[in-house]
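At this stage, I needed to go through a protein sequence along with its fold in token form, as given directly below:
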Amino acid sequence: MKAVILAGGKATRLLPLTYNTPKAMVPVLNTPFLEYVLRHLSRHGIKEAILALSQSQGQPIESYLGDGRQIGVRLYYSIEDTPLGTAGALKNAERYLEGTFLMLSGDIFTDLDFTAMIDFHRQKKAKATIALTRVDDPTRYGLIETNADNRITRFLEKPSRNEVTTNTINASIYVLEPDVLAQIPCEIEVSMERETFPQLLERGELVCAYQYPDYWIDMGTLQAYLQLHRDLLSGKSSQYAITPGDDVVIGEGSEVHRTAQVHGPVMVGANCSIGPRVKLIGPLVIGPGGTILEDSVIEQSIIWRNARMGPKATVKSSILADNCHLEANSVVEEAVLGDDVTVERGGRAEAGSRIWPGTRVAPKA
């Protein structure tokens, strides 16, 4: 069986992190997000995947993943010249597909048992099966109503509060039969959620719901991206096992000064230098090549590659992209910094700020 992964969105919700980095390559615990998706597929015997991408994303992703051999999934690349929507992107990948296939959004991190979902789809003899998950606030997603036989009866995209009748939402994971493709027009923007699936219902096709309790998160916002790391570091997903007493991971070639204080869960990437009296307070991830100088405090944050900090720099509840430089006595709190941002000596990145790549943040006069 093959899988189609939709990873062609502009990822504006993750800016400035995605200004230079495709969403699929955003690091999660210092590993590109898409690699988790592909390895999870491989564990369920899905050994071929089509990546549906935009022109700008294809080259960096293909440069890293190549044909997928190193992660056990043969990769094909379906490139869109213009945005085609979820169904249009699937139609664009049609030449790679035959037989029943899996389709999933490139925003989703999940422990879903793909094998069980595919078996359910086949047992029901459904035209399409949609994975459902429960969330606290369904107004942000596509709400789905079902009957007692797990047959879908209604779709409602991003309902208002007074329209909510259930908290089960479309998890953006589908098992589809190939003749669904024949119903999607070529080379125009089409939505699976708003057009293709409702049309299947109108034609009387069997569209089923597969409800599951496993871990699921749409990591396409900055808040969710932080939450994903917190969840993984607290052991909420099966894809990263962490146990009490084993919650500090120091990468190869890294040095932590004997006077530094490390309170897990903390992951430090390869070839990092953690200086005297530094405090690292988890949940915290520091990417490879980071240098944290004396008396700095880094707390509950995600730091990408090649950070330089301190002395006496402070980072709290923030995300820093590649090559950020925090000079002495600088502060970053509840902020997001793009690549190559410098916070000058005594400068401060204010709470709620998103700072664009290459910016210098000077201290206030």
